Amino acid sequence: MARAKKQICRLLLDYFDKTYTEELGDHWRTIKEVLTTPELWQYAVLLNNFQCTSGSELEKRLRVHGYHRLSSEITLSAYPKTLNCYIHRKPKRFPSQRHQHGKIKEYYILNASSLLPVLALDVKDGEAVLDMCAAPGGKSIVLLQCMSPGHLHCNEPDINRSRWLKQTLESFVPLSHMGAITTSEMDGRIMGRLHANAYDKVLVDAPCSNDRSWLFSSDFGKATERISQRKLLPVIQTELLRSAIRALSPGGSLVYSTCTLSKAENSDVISNILNSCSEVIPEDLSDMASRLSHEFTFAPGVSHGLLVLPDKGKAWGPMFVSKLIKL
Fold first, then answer.
1. Does 4 score more than 60 pLDDT?
2. For the whole model, what pTM was predicted?
3. Catalytically annotated residues
4. What is the dihedral of CA 111, 318, 243, 164, to 10 degrees?
């Protein structure tokens, strides 16, 4: 039976039209076409090193189907050799694997822009890492493909999403490696007080107005609620960042990311932090953007970070990434 076609929420689309035409100008026309046309969406395949070895049958199968390894064209110091992610130039989707209790999956399907916050964080073996808003777990899985943490703390305050996170970890991480991972269900805004100076690296993949998802998961009532909620999100995001800074050890770094195009939730949040917190300085990510520009389309002139714009043939994002260093 064919799947029912996804329905776009007209109220949200009209709202995005007004907001993003002002913020993104002519770029919005192409972004809108990609976001509203699931047939144009692309999906990456992240191999699970705990289960799938180099030169495996899965890699051969991907190559036969026209996929290529993302890192084969990237000369980036923060791109680990252990990170095996395959992408296709066309909007194909490799079949997902079902969760089976006690069985480790070979790969994870994701939006390739989800790699960028982890690459920007540049975690090293043995470091203590906090993934403050970790569900559904994709970026935690990417982190574990990049390094062997001294400790990885995956936090998710929402109970249902926390169950999803734990299932993701169970599906991709063998029991022999779970000793280095802890999970919790705390409000991220209090974690800095409870775990002051405890982590070398912190990832804040903040709750945000998820443009791509919201367009197809909102009826009129939910759209109205979400538009109202959108005005409150920058306050929550700023509080999460302040907590993350407190949780960082001196000299540590954090990455803030969202999957929205919203300037208010992206560069404005970082500007607010920089203007009110003398403990951190921004790190320039322009070199990362220039080295990845053949695979991703980046918005020009974005303050304090990178913004991936969904584009035809590069239908990744939206994804905003900013990096801060604690003095």
1. no
2. 0.95
3. 259
4. -40
